[in-house]
């Protein structure tokens, strides 16, 4: 009977009650947009002053950190007599004190030049080995499944807390047994062994932050793990690789304790050579300052060359 209803008392069919029709939606009135309130002049002055105070404090802290380096440089370009009589700041009042004789003496010394060469021959191989092996192991621990992977990672993290001093006697005996004690190779192996735990930990965490789909797509295309590592992982991990290179290079370059123990008399780096000069000629500050400043130049060049990647790696965690 459709939607009609039947009333038994009258026997008639009744039409269904009319449904209420929805009234058209009425537009809600919107408040007129208020113009943005400009900060008051006092607030802007207070903000500018607060920024200025912070900048001044940072400049003062930076100047305090640079002051010893600046003093070292000006001592290195003054004669021994001038350094013995007055402070290095007097060079501003008497520019005639400026001289390159100290650097000529250092670079004319065969022993100092050989120590610089030894430093390069020690630092470059140890840095390359740590970066390459650390990147390989970090990728394996991040994306390759194998039994005992977690235990290996825990052991590597534990090795980061082992101090250098506990390994001096055992490694000296081991290097002596295999005939490399007192050579550059012994220093390189020591730097490599103690640089690897941090390198593996750093590279593993960085590779782990890369999207898994990137590696899975390469595997589906038939790429091997070696190809994925060299063509995908390494280019994407360039900021971490640069940071690791800077850290390892600076640590190996500035090391004196390991080289003093394991390097031979003909293989000593610049740090050991400067220490011997200080012991023999403790009053010869001008030559020592020139040698120390020369030893600072190459690490500074390496740092500024990789500064872009270094900053990118430091900010990586805050941008993910």
What is the overall silhouette?
A: flat
Mean pLDDT: 80
CATH class of the largest domain: Mainly Alpha
N- to C-terminal distance: 67 Å
Q: Strand portion, in percent? A: under 5%
What name goes with the CATH superfamily of the largest domain? Answer: MetI-like
The largest β sheet comes out as:
2 strands, antiparallel
- Tell me the strand order in the biggest sheet: 1-2
Q: Rg, please?
A: 35 Å
DSSP strand tally: 2
Order of helices and strands: EEHHHHHHHHHHHHHHH
At CATH's second level, what is the architecture of the largest domain? Orthogonal Bundle
**Count of helices?**
15
CATH fold assignment of the largest domain: MetI-like fold
Secondary structure category: mainly alpha
Stretches with pLDDT under 50, minimum 5 residues? none
Please, could you describe this protein's structure?
With 320 residues, this protein is mainly α. The chain has 15 helices and two strands. It has helices at residues 41-76, 80-85, 101-107, 110-143, 149-159, 168-178, 184-208, 212-220, 225-236, 238-254, 257-262, 270-280, 285-305, 307-314, 316-319; strands at residues 5-7, 12-14. A two-stranded antiparallel ribbon has the order 1-2. Helix 12 (270-280) packs antiparallel against helix 13 (285-305). The relative contact order is 0.11. Its main location: membrane.
């Amino acid at each position: 009977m459709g939607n009609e209803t039947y009333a038994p008392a009258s026997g008639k069919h009744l039409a269904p009650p009319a449904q209420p029709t929805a009234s058209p939606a009425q537009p809600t009135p919107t408040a007129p947009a208020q113009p943005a309130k400009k900060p008051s002049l006092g607030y802007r002055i207070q903000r500018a002053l607060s920024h200025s105070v912070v900048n001044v404090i940072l400049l003062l802290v930076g100047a305090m950190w640079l002051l010893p380096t600046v003093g070292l440089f000006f001592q290195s370009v003054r004669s021994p007599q001038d350094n013995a009589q007055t402070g290095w700041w007097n060079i501003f009042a008497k520019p005639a004190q400026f001289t390159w004789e100290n650097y000529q003496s250092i670079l004319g010394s065969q022993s100092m030049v050989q120590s610089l060469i030894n430093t390069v021959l020690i630092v470059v191989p140890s840095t390359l080995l740590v970066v390459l092996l650390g990147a390989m192991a970090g990728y394996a621990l991040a994306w390759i499944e194998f039994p005992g992977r977690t235990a290996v990672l825990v052991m590597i993290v534990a090795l980061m807390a082992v101090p250098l001093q506990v390994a001096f006697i055992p490694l000296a005996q081991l290097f002596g047994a295999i005939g490399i004690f007192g050579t550059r190779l012994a220093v390189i192996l020591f730097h490599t062994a103690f640089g690897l735990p941090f390198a593996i930990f750093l590279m593993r965490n960085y590779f782990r932050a890369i999207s898994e789909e990137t590696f899975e797509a390469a595997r589906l295309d038939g790429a091997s793990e070696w190809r994925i590592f060299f063509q995908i992982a390494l280019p994407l991990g360039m900021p971490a690789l640069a940071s690791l290179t800077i850290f390892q290079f600076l640590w190996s370059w500035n090391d004196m304790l390991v080289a003093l123990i394991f390097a031979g008399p003909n293989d000593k780096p610049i740090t050991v050579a400067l220490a011997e000069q200080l012991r023999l000629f403790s009053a010869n500050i001008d030559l020592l300052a020139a040698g120390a400043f020369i030893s600072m130049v190459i690490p500074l060049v390496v740092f500024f060359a990789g500064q872009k990647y270094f900053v990118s790696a430091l900010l990586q965690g805050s941008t993910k």
